[in-house]
Every structure is written in structure tokens, then in C-alpha cells.
Amino acid sequence: MLVKIYPENPNPKEIDRIVEILRNDGVVIYPTDGVYAFGCALSSLKAIERIKTIRGKRDDELTIVCDGLSCISEYARVDNGQFRIMKRNLPGPFTFILQASSRVPVKALGRRKTVAVRYPANNIPVAIVEGLGVPMVTASVKDPDEVTEYTTDPELIHERYARQVDAVIDGGYGSVVPTTLVDLISGEPEILREGGGDLA
């Protein structure tokens, strides 16, 4: 199923359709302010396993998408310094690595104690998470060494993954530039991957 949603003003009915899919252990592909990504509800371990299978991802390569800094503070341990850095840079094309809080299901973390968090500057995933009431677990559609047209064109993404996911959201052409990955565990930001954002 290909669902057209405009990032500037996401249609609440279409957002509700996607939320309903996610509440029923569904997996969707959606646009971010970086590349298109797979998404599912953090509360659905079944759907998390589906994303891992589709992408061949390990536990330590999954990220959660939040709808604001207060949501991030629920699922990660955030001190004042970390909060200030995130407040300056979010929403935006950044992924921050933090200590996970007890709100993150153990089965979603695997062996790690950290969590990678995002608060994108795209209204579509933010509206989905707001409606869902829990973060989305997410993994990029593309690999860093695999930049092809199918990773940016939602219709081609749909052609490729229609049988593996429950819906693909057409939010316009995506980017091939990933997020900037920043480790905040030590307190001092360490950039692990240069991407779409310049850390302020």
C-alpha cells in the first residue's frame, strides 16, 4: 500500500491509518529529514524482529524516533549538558547515542545499554509518533555504500518492498544523505558519522 502524505501538513486521517498499522505489529517505510526509513512501534517486538530480518540489522544498529525532547528524556538518560546540545540541534538530521532508560524494552536493546535517538525535522514521523504514543524503532532503507534511485523515490521503494512491509508513505523524494551520528555518552559530543547536519 502506497500512502501519499504531505510533510508540510500531514493529513490526520492518513496518519491515523499508519498508526493503526503500527499498533497491529505492522512495519512501514516513511520519509525523514534524511533518507527513507523502515519504522515500527517500539512496543511491538514482533515488528522489531521483522525490521531486523528485512534489513539484516543487529540490535545495536536500530534507532528510535521521538516526537520531542521530553520523549527522548523518557527513553534515554539525559543530563543537563546533553539536553542543551540536543536542544540546539533538534529537530534536525541528527542521531544521538545516549544511555538507555528502563522504558526501552530489554528485547529491543539486546546486549547494549545505549540507545540511538532521533527527533527529525519532518512532520510526518513526528505526527506518527504523537498518534502512536510510543517512539518508532527505525532503520534506514539504504546502506551507506548503496546510493541508488530506489532509495529516494517512494514509488520505486514501494515496488521493491511492497511484499515485505504493510505500507510505504510517499512524502516526496528523499535524500541520500544520512543523519550525523553523535555519541553523547561521555558528555562531550563525538561525531561518529558526518551526515546532513552541522552540530551547533
Q: Would you give an account of this structure?
A:
The protein is 31% helix and 22% strand. It contains 7 helices and 11 strands. The chain has helices at 12-23, 45-55, 69-75, 80-89, 106-109, 123-132, 154-161; strands at residues 2-4, 28-30, 37-41, 63-65, 76-77, 94-100, 114-118, 136-140, 167-170, 180-183, 190-193. Strands 1, 2, 3, 4, 5, 6, 7, 8, 9, 10 and 11 form an 11-stranded mixed β-sheet that branches. α1 packs across α6 (123-132). The mean pLDDT is 91.
Tell me the layout of helices and strands:
Elements: E1 2-4, H1 12-23, E2 28-30, E3 37-41, H2 45-55, E4 63-65, H3 69-75, E5 76-77, H4 80-89, E6 94-100, H5 106-109, E7 114-118, H6 123-132, E8 136-140, H7 154-161, E9 167-170, E10 180-183, E11 190-193
Helix pairs in contact: 1-6
Task: Describe this structure in a few short sentences.
The chain has 200 residues and is of the alpha/beta class. It has seven helices and eleven strands.
- Number of structurally distinct domains: 1
Give me the number of helical elements. 7
Per CATH, which architecture?
Alpha-Beta Complex
Q: Kindly report the CATH topology.
A: DHBP synthase
Percentage of residues in DSSP E strands: 15-25%
**What is the distance, rounded to the nearest whole angstrom, between the alpha carbons of the first and last residues?**
39 Å
What's the CATH C level? Alpha Beta
**Contiguous runs where pLDDT drops below 50 for at least 5 residues:** none
Radius of gyration: 15 Å
Shape, per Cα inertia axes: globular
What is the share of helical residues?
25-40%
Q: What is the number of strand segments?
A: 11
Structural class, judged by helices and strands?
A: alpha/beta
Give the ordered list of helices and strands: EHEEHEHEHEHEHEHEEE
Q: On the 0-100 scale, what is the average pLDDT?
A: 91
The CATH homologous superfamily name equals: DHBP synthase
